[in-house]
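Materials and Methods. Structural model of LysR family transcriptional regulator. The 299-residue sequence of LysR family transcriptional regulator from Ruegeria marisrubri was retrieved and submitted for structure prediction as follows.
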Amino acid sequence: MVELGDFDWNHIRAFLATAEAGSLSAAARQLRQTQPTLSRQVAALEADLGVMLFERVGRSLELTQAGLELLEHTRAMGEAANRIALTASGQAQSIEGEVRITASDVMSAHVLPDVLRDIRERAPLLRIEVIATNDIRDLMRREADIAIRHVRPDQPDLIARLVREARAHLYAASTYLERKGRPRTMAELPAHDFVGFGDTARMIEFLAPLGIHLRQQNFPIGSPSGIVAWEYVRQGFGLAPMPEEVGDATAGVERVLPDMEPILFPIWLTTHRELHTSRRIRLVFDLLAEHLARQEPGK
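The predicted structure was written out as tokens:
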């Protein structure tokens, strides 16, 4: 693992901007520096560390393995430096305007309230609009400023950060399991009812590689709304996967096959390139990253 040690912050900032922008020219524009200056700063950091951080692929730069390892640390440093600057100058209290966050309805209702309280405390003049939808909103059309999704966007003009690999489990209401019986093995799951979230065919396809082989007949009820579907689980209509921070906190439901390996899925935080120039988007983006990463077991 690459160790940062005692290095020039300007060199680290140059590396971070280049890694997130994908090119020296774009990073130079964001930092309001010349491209040769930025290139020298990145080269100086590589020399200090004794490793190559980027390799050129066509007209773009790609991070080496050492660069990927360093990126994790420098992002944390950048977020901390930004928060310190805002706090020291009192700027967070004066940040105003609107930031639109789009996330699934389940995450919007069950996960975001904690971070929204933190945002309200740090930036009371800021207005947050949460667009709760299970569709992938197009940031390029400015339907939202920040998106929380389980797939990485493919638009090159967006900044995407993998916050963590989240864990989900199968859950069911205790009343359902007392009525239908608690499955002891995965082979018994097809004998149970499931509650569908959105597209049932995609849900079947998602669960199959995990060894859970279901058919349409296993989904007698469902809803495109995650909140509605989860309420049906709580009301005893059947089983469904759910992130553990939501499932474990819901009264009246319990894990099915609690010894089964958790279902892993990524959480991506995505925003526009103006992250580097908009204080309000930077603040909300950093706080979202901090809170979502903190939910990882052991943090």
